Structure formats: C-alpha cells, structure tokens
C-alpha cells in the first residue's frame, strides 16, 4: 500500500510538471527580449484585469509589473492570492511575493515567489537548480527532488522541479512541497550574459494539487511588461 501510494503521488507530480512546463514554454516565447538588467518602474495602480500595481500592493486577481528583475514582466494572480512585502515572509531577495491566507495551517501560509538575476552565458539551469537545492539544505539537509524536467531551447531554456522539504514551524517539523520553475533568456546583445527568472510555489502537501493549478494559471499570465 505504501508503494502504491508513492507511485500514485509520483504520477500526479509528473502530470503537474507537464502542465507547468507548458506554461513555462509560453513564458519563454513571450520574453524574447534583450536582458539589459535595468529594473522596471511600476506604474500607478489601476483596476480590473489590465490594471497595474506596485509589487507590494495586494491585488487578486490583477496584473502587476515586477521591479528589480532583469526582464520586466507583468502577470495576474489567481483568486485568493494576495501580494505582500517580501520581508513579511523572510524573502528579502525576492522581487515579488504573494500568499494564500485561505490555505494557512500549522503556522504556514502558501507562497508564490518571483526572483531573477543575471548569470554568465554558460551557466546552465541545471546548475542553478542544484544551487537552489543547496540553499534549501540549509533549512533541511534531507531535502529531495521528487521530479525534474527541462524544456525550451538552448537560447531560451526552462527547468521545472518539485522538491520535498521539512521546516520547523512552531517547534515542530512541517513538511512542504515546492515547485520551482526557472526560465533562462540569452541576452541578444551580449551572449556572455543570461537572464534567469525564478518562480516558486511552496505549500503543504495536502494542498499541492489544488494550488499547483493556481501556479499553472499564474504562469500562463506572465508576459513582458507592456505586451
């Protein structure tokens, strides 16, 4: 029974990754642009689906340009998600953070985090994915990869992995699942530079299937700012 449950979990994990990879490829196709590394400037807040908002202004649903990314993007949050200052969830290096209070439990609230940086052109997403794991091992030495899949092209690669980890919450261990999607874009003016956007969903295992759907929906809305 244990083995059967494990196989079932791996089956739907692969299904989730297939959906997320499809969305990641759509993001890659829409972000074919020179990566200058210049932060974008948020516009004034508006309303409805085509409105814009500061990354720290809660908006769900709605479009939000993200500052401090090598490639400026916009996106819409699914219902129930609210943007918060990254410092509220100890994610100071993130460009944008959203939480879903409706699925809070045992001291943990699911998060969507966006970050980005510029690397040498020869740096692979697999290398960066391993670096992500090393960072998580500072929290949980036993973190493990449930599934990993690469996508895209040499100039616009993508990588999605699901990792399982444990964090201390209120004095007890809290098991979590995290989807990480990395999207690389070669600088069209400087082949020695590559911009990488990082998207991550972290949630409790019992909410993973439901919120992975939200993550897929969120990724499907990501587009270059002003597109």
Write up what this structure looks like.
The protein has one domain: Protein Transport Mog1p, Chain A (3-Layer(aba) Sandwich). The protein contains three helices and nine strands; from the N terminus they run αββββαββββαβ. By secondary structure, the protein is α+β, with helices and mostly antiparallel strands. Helix 1 runs parallel beside helix 3. The radius of gyration is 17 Å and the shape is globular. Strands 2-3-4-8-7-6-5 form a seven-stranded antiparallel beta sheet, sandwiched between helices. Strands 1-9 form a two-stranded antiparallel sheet.
Give average pLDDT, whole number: 75
CATH T-level topology: Protein Transport Mog1p, Chain A
Amount of helix: 10-25%
CATH hierarchy class name = Alpha Beta
- Amino- and carboxy-terminal Cα gap: 50 Å
**How are helices and strands ordered from N to C?**
HEEEEHEEEEHE
Strand order of the largest sheet: 2-3-4-8-7-6-5
Parts with pLDDT < 50 across at least 5 consecutive residues:
1-12, 33-64
CATH architecture: 3-Layer(aba) Sandwich
* Radius of gyration based on Cα positions: 17 Å
How many domains is the backbone divided into? 1
Q: Specify the oligomeric state.
A: single chain
CATH homology-level superfamily? Mog1/PsbP, alpha/beta/alpha sandwich
Structural class: alpha+beta
Biggest sheet statistics? 7 strands, antiparallel
DSSP strand content = 25-35%
Number of strands: 9
Principal-axis shape equals globular
Protein name: Lipoprotein LpqN
Signal peptide: 1-29
Biased composition (Low complexity): 34-43
Biased composition (Polar residues): 48-60
């Amino acid at each position: 029974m244990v083995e059967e449950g494990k196989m079932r979990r791996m089956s739907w994990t692969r299904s989730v990754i297939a959906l997320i990879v499809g969305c990641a490829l759509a993001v890659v196709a829409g972000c074919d642009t020179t990566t200058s590394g210049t932060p974008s400037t948020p516009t004034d807040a508006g309303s409805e689906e085509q409105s814009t908002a500061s990354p720290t202004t809660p908006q769900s649903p709605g479009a939000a340009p993200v500052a401090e990314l090598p490639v400026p993007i916009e996106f819409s949050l699914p219902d129930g998600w609210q943007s918060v200052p990254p410092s509220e969830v100890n994610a100071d290096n993130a460009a944008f953070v959203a939480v879903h209070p409706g699925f809070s439990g045992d001291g943990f609230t699911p998060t969507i985090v966006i970050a980005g940086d510029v690397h040498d052109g020869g740096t692979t997403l697999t290398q960066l994915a391993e670096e992500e794991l090393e960072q998580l091992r500072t929290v949980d030495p036993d973190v493990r990869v449930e599934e990993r899949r690469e996508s895209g092209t040499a100039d616009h690669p993508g990588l999605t992995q699901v990792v399982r980890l444990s964090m201390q919450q209120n004095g007890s261990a809290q098991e979590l699942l995290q989807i990480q999607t990395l999207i690389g874009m070669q600088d069209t003016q400087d082949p020695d530079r590559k911009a990488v956007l990082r998207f991550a969903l972290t949630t409790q295992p019992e909410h993973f299937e439901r919120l992975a759907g939200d993550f897929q929906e969120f990724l499907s809305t990501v587009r270059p700012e002003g597109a």
